[in-house]
Amino acid sequence: MFDYETLKMIWWVLVGVLLIGFAVTDGFDMGVGALLRIIGKNDNERRVLLNTVGPHWDGNQVWFITAGGAIFAAWPVVYAVAFSGLYWALLLVLFAMFFRPVGFEYRSKMEDPRWRNAWDWGLTAGGAVPALVFGVAFGNLFLGTPFKLDELMRSEYTGSFWALLNPFALLCGVVSLSMLAMHGAAYLQMRTDGELRQRASGYTRLLAIVVAACFTLAGIWLYFGIEGYVITASADVGAAMTPLQKSVELKEGAWLANYGKYPITLTAPILAYAGLLLTLIMTAAQRSGLAFVGSSLALTGIICTAGFSLFPFVMPSNLMPGHSLTLWDVTSSEKTLNIMFWVAMIFVPIVLSYTLWGYYKMWGRLTTDFIESNKHGVY
Amino acid sequence: MISENVVDLSRLQFAITAFYHFLFVPLTLGLAFLLAIMESAYVMTGKQVYQDMVKFWGKLFGINFALGVTTGLTMEFQFGANWAYYSHYVGDIFGAPLAIEGLMAFFLESTFIGLFFFGWDRLSKVQHLAVTWLVAIGSNLSALWILIANGWMQNPVGAEFNYQTMRMEMVSFSELIFNPVAQVKFVHTVSAGYVTGAMFVLGISSYYLLKKRDLPFARRSFAIAASFGFASILSVIVLGDESGYELGDVQRTKLAAIEAEWETVEPPAAFTLFGIPDSENMKTDYALKVPGALGLIATRSIDEEVTGIKDLIVEHEERIRRGMQAYALLQKLKGGDQSAQTLSTFDALKKDLGYGLLLKKYTDNVVDASEAQIKQAAHGTIPSVGPMFWTFRIMVGLGFAMLILIGLAFYHSSRHSVERQRWLLKALLFAIPLPWISSEMGWFVAEFGRQPWSIGEVLPTYLSASTRTAADLYMSLAGFIGFYTLLLVAEMYLMFRYARLGPSSLHTGRYDLEQSAASAAANA
Questions:
Q1: Which of A56, A80, A343 is facing B80, going by the closest CB pair?
Q2: Best CA proximity match to A324, nearest among A87, A78, A121, A58
Q3: Which helix (H) or strand (E) holds B455?
Q4: Residue B113 and residue B115: Cα distance in Å, rounded?
Q5: How much is the pLDDT for B243?
Q6: A293, A306, A50: which is closest to A183 by C-alpha?
Q7: Contact residues for A86 (Cβ-Cβ < 8 A; gap 6+)
Q8: CA distance linking residue A234 with residue A99, whole number of Å
């Protein structure tokens, strides 16, 4: 139905869709986790916050797992090179995320305040650490990471974990942490009432401004301070190819070249700023639903900006630029891409529809009174 | 050169994280269906006690489920982290069932588990019942897809090597899905999960019956678990996955190792009930044999032979020699000679390429491997017989012990005489760990028995690992063991606490501990 080249393009879009799905859904419960101890001043308040995401966090987290599985199936080279190379970053994310399922489920099953306090810290780390690390990892993609492939396609990564923590990548980490925290605060505006809602609004505004500032700064830095990657020669992208079949050069300002070449891509940063603006205005107007829409659009815009800037690169190598991974040379075979495309076309709409039904059924604002009267039944 | 230490540590890390994960999976598989059955009884009869059963056993389900999710996260990413070359080499086929598992099963299970716990007041009775069934179906679908992936590691059908991309690529999606090894594994594994759920409910209900607490609640739970468990244990044993052992070379080798079947004998082969396998001299001491039984179990016939280890080594040696030729041709192809003749010879030999790759463990230069190295590699195709022989027998022995226990539970439960059999109740209580031990042994047999391959006949484990240092592996291993153990302690603590409390933990005012607390308060 589609030719190989188109399928490769489609899968680049689909991976983006999964990442955006992850950020928009799991992003808010991670944000709620990160803000748990800041917005929730006492045990009952924290239980309100936890219960706003209680029925949903597990389903949301599947976006993360499915993104992992989909990258394995559609981009096996990326799956192999990225997760073995960024080994400690990945493990840090996993170790932090361990505390989420257990924290949510176990925290309120015991009365002891030390027990609850310990799990609250776990949930905070489970929300904040992955949010930060995802941004740091994305930041390093622009700088290139030190890996190479041999002729048997075995990858070797020569950098250390500490090298990932450079100023530009940390700035990207702040973008990602503050945007997911903003998203969590926007969600809490919708699902809480009274003082909690007031506090959530305050943090939404503050974080939206932080996101706007850091996102802008990262863009300027990217243009003036970081060399971009450019493909100078390549085998036929419409055929099966490996990352070894091309040559790549570094060029100043190249990471923003796509915006000149394809002006349509400018919609991504515009969407990011428009979303942030919408979040700010609607928070001020106490229209919490629209504030959440604004925040979701902002995340979408920011992730698309990162993806469009890198295009067609996925994971550049600063050790051997020619070995950089692009969406043309990391994919599965045409047959697998085709099959997985149809699987996604069938199941993503089904998943979305029952997910929405779940939110619809559980909708409404939660209060401390609700927790008082359901002490033993909820988180 | 690849560090053998890193390969071993990566294997250990995978084994430990997978064993941890499988402490929680079987209970989820079994208890989910028990909850769905209990809730069906509630919706059909309207009796409150059934809803209380769903809520209470659901609480224990939740405590277990949380760690299942936690340890499952690791599994999705560990292939990339620790087995990068594997991920590259077979991701084209192996990744597909993992991605489908996420889309088709995890979303279903995880979305509806939230509604299961939080939706009691928001959903109608029938809607909630549907939610519970969807959780059970979701968890079982996830088992289906992961076992399709695992079945392919044992018997890699529907795929071919592509020298241009240096990896295996999918040829037939339907062969992957309908891999007979995967089908057999699926039935065997989920049935073992159902047995685990049943043994769990039986054991804890026995505790209440022994304590003469919450009797109507405990009796009903016991009865449902006994009948569900009886059907499941029969299914585990009758549909034991021995029937999948004639398919694919790795499965045949595994069978020979399990049975310490050194020689190929006149069919039907005898089953070694007991003995001390001696790998060095390739014989089994003190062997106690049941004539004809192995042939019947393994081949489902009396005239097909079960190949012995010595003959398998000879077969493998030939395949290694052909694999060396395939490897030489691959080098030619990579070097630019893509003539029709090279291609067609390579195509004819490439199914043995994996055997050639086995030599990589012994020499970098596969093409010029010495006779001694070839012999060494051929011997290396047989997994260590002793551990295989024993773990398999522990698994089967425990399976039969559970058959007797559950059979008695079922018999007495249907005759309403179970409360008089106090020894049976005690035995059931202390037998709670058996299904877990049995399942873990089963996985050991399946995966240790796959060695030296990560993908049978295709990719040696030795080549599959990532290029990391041993220090990385020691630290990550320590991290996994540390975090998992911490969380496991919390899990066991809550599990014991809530199991002891029983349905009184629901705070409905209907159960014994609350009533005695209330009457004590009134008397004071």
A1: A80
A2: A78
A3: strand B453-455
A4: 5
A5: 59
A6: A293
A7: A137, A140, A145, A157, A164
A8: 45
pLDDT above 90 as % of chain B: 81
Q: Which B-chain residues 150-179 have CB contacts (< 8 A) with chain A?
A: 162, 164-167, 169-171, 173
Q: How far apart are CA B259 and CA B266, in angstroms?
A: 15
| Helices of type H across chain A | 4-39, 43-53, 57-74, 76-85, 87-106, 113-143, 167-191, 194-225, 257-261, 267-284, 288-310, 334-362, 368-373
Which helix H or strand E contains B459, and what residues bound it?
Answer: strand B459-460
Choose among A84, A91, A343: nearest Cβ to B84: A84
Closest CA to A148 of A244, A54, A213: A244
For every residue of B90-138, DSSP letters joined together read: HHHHHHHHHHHIIIIIIHHHHHHHHHHHH-TTTS-HHHHHHHHHHHHHH
Summarised one tens digit per residue, pLDDT across range B395-421 is 999 999 999 999 999 999 999 999 999
How much is the pLDDT for B291?
A: 80
Asked if the model's pLDDT at residue B302 lies above 80, the reply is no
Read off the tokens for B176: 């992957």
Judged by CB atoms closer than 8 Å, whether chains meet at A95 and B165 is answered as no
A252: which strand partners? A227
pLDDT at residue B524 tops 60:
no
Which residues does chain A have with pLDDT short of 50? Answer: none
CA B461-A329-A62 angle, to 5 degrees, is 70
Instruction: Using CB atoms within 10 Å of the CB of residue A363, give its burial: 0 to 12 exposed, 13 to 18 middle, 19+ buried.
Output: exposed
Q: Which two tokens stand for residue B295?
A: 């042939």
From chain B, the residues in CB contact with A118 under 8 A are none
pTM of the model: 0.94
pLDDT, averaged across chain B = 93
Cβ of A54 within 8 Å of Cβ of B73? The answer is no
Q: Do A347 and B491 touch (CB under 8 A)?
A: no
B27 contact partners, CB below 8 Å, separation of at least 6: B61, B64, B193, B196, B197, B200
Tell me which chain A residues have a C-beta less than 8 angstroms from the C-beta of B58. none
Whole-number Å distance between alpha carbons of B256 and B248: 13
Sign of CA dihedral B334, B340, B342, B343: positive
Average pLDDT over residues B339-360: 94
Quote the pLDDT of residue B241: 59
ipTM of the complex as predicted: 0.95
